[in-house]
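Q: What would this chain look like folded?
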Amino acid sequence: MGKEDALLKQYEILAQTTSEVTNWRQNANQFYLAATTTLLGISAYLKDNPASAVFCIVGIGIALIWRANILSYKKLNAAKFKVLRDIEKKLAYPIFAKEQEYYKQEKRERFTNIETWIPQLFILAYLIILISLYGGVMTGFLFHP
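A: My prediction, written as structure tokens:
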């Protein structure tokens, strides 16, 4: 196997692993979505019960971990694509570099930027429940003459 064939083989393997990382990310997102949705449902159901706060706090923690996980996968795939673009410089046509160039020309929002809003919206929902649960108590404490 020549140097060019070996380079092409490495390119193919790396391109495949980017797809695998995307699959791992989707599976992780499904887990976090199920967990946060379940906790949010329990929190809303128990909204008049102080135990609801525990579910909200756990839900916020999971949503923060979810967001960090999304950003971690983004960095991993970004590194992989950087290596792919480096390899492409030695190949006949820079497929991924061209795809990125055309995507940028369309001025589209990066999927990760959109994706990170989902856990943030869950955090907002949990905070709304916490405020509705304790807002009256805190208002009375802060503004009691």
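The helical segments are 3-45, 51-88, 95-105, 111-115, 117-143.
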